[in-house]
Amino acid sequence: MKIICVGRNYRAHAEELGNAVPEEPVIFCKPDSALLPPRNPFIIPPWTGDVHHEIEWVVRISKVGKYIEPRFAYSYLDAMTVGLDFTARDLQSKLKSQGLPWERAKGFDGSAVLGSWVELPAKPMAHEIRLEKNGTEVQRGTTADFLHSVEDLIAFVSQYFTLKKGDLLFTGTPAGVGPIHPGDCLEGFLNGESRFRVNVR
Ligand code: ZN
User: Fold this and answer.
1) How far is the CA of 6 from the centre of ligand 1 (A)?
2) Measured between alpha carbons, how far is residue 196 from residues 14, 83, 93 in Å?
3) What CA–CA distance (Å, rounded) separates 171 from 27?
4) Which has more pLDDT, 67 or 12?
5) What does the alpha-carbon distance between residue 145 and residue 11 come to, in Å, rounded to a whole number?
6) pLDDT digit string (tens) for 88-127?
7) With 0-12 CB in 10 A as exposed, 13-18 as middle and 19+ as buried, what is 23?
8) How far is the CA of 5 from the centre of ligand 1 (A)?
9) Quick one: residue 28, left, alpha or beta (phi over 0 = left, psi -120 to 50 = alpha)?
10) Are 149 and 57 in contact (CB under 8 A)?
11) Are strands 136-142 and 128-133 parallel, antiparallel or unpaired?
12) Distance (Å, rounded) from C-alpha 126 to C-alpha 144?
């Protein structure tokens, strides 16, 4: 199983980090060891002082595909949820400034949180994603605001990586990313329903 992630898929988030809005999707991967086991707390690694939360709409691949056409792309998905793409922003900024890959800042142990799965609707539609930190809303977005639709993302990614059953696609985060601290509780919602709760240590 692989975890494919999209960066800068919401204009307002690209702008809040001072990044250009890209013409092509920005793609990176996390190793499968990045998945935080269900119900485990997230432990901030000792080598970073600035881990950010990024709530994202996550979809699951249902079958093998390569060079998938956008018009068929939706049929390669079978479930959705929300997840967190934890990011060590301090390390990522350092790596970015040196023109180096982001993997260490994005793919570390526990950096991928997955909510419980929901069956995908038969037809594509907009979904609302939301993150609460200690009971207060910190991020909210709708997939209607994507710069690249999920169909276009699947088509794009499958030109480079063969997609396999069980692979995950994290589709990017809306504006409002920010730091987390020990003692925080993060709760993710998809279309108003809670899908995960994570305690930070
Ligand atoms: Zn992200």
Assistant:
1) 6
2) 25, 8, 28
3) 10
4) 67
5) 8
6) 999 999 999 999 999 999 999 999 999 999 999 999 999 9
7) exposed
8) 7
9) beta
10) no
11) antiparallel
12) 5
Going from N- to C-terminal start, the domains of the chain cover: 3-199
Provide the token pair at 150: 């999920």
If you measure from the C-alpha of residue 63 to the centroid of ligand 1, how many angstroms do you get, rounded to a whole number?
Answer: 24
Q: How confident is the model at residue 23 (pLDDT cuts 50, 70, 90)?
A: confident
CA 1 to chain centre: 15
Whole-number CA gyration radius for the chain: 16
Ligand 1 center–CA 104 separation, angstroms: 14
Q: Domain 3-199: give its CATH superfamily.
A: Fumarylacetoacetase-like, C-terminal domain (3.90.850.10)
d(CA 27, CA 5): 6
Do β-strands 55-61 and 168-170 pair in parallel, antiparallel, or remain unpaired? antiparallel
CA distance 167 to 79: 11
Parallel, antiparallel or unpaired: strands 112-114 and 136-142: unpaired
Percent of the chain with pLDDT over 90: 93
Q: How far is the CA of 186 from the centre of ligand 1 (A)?
A: 16
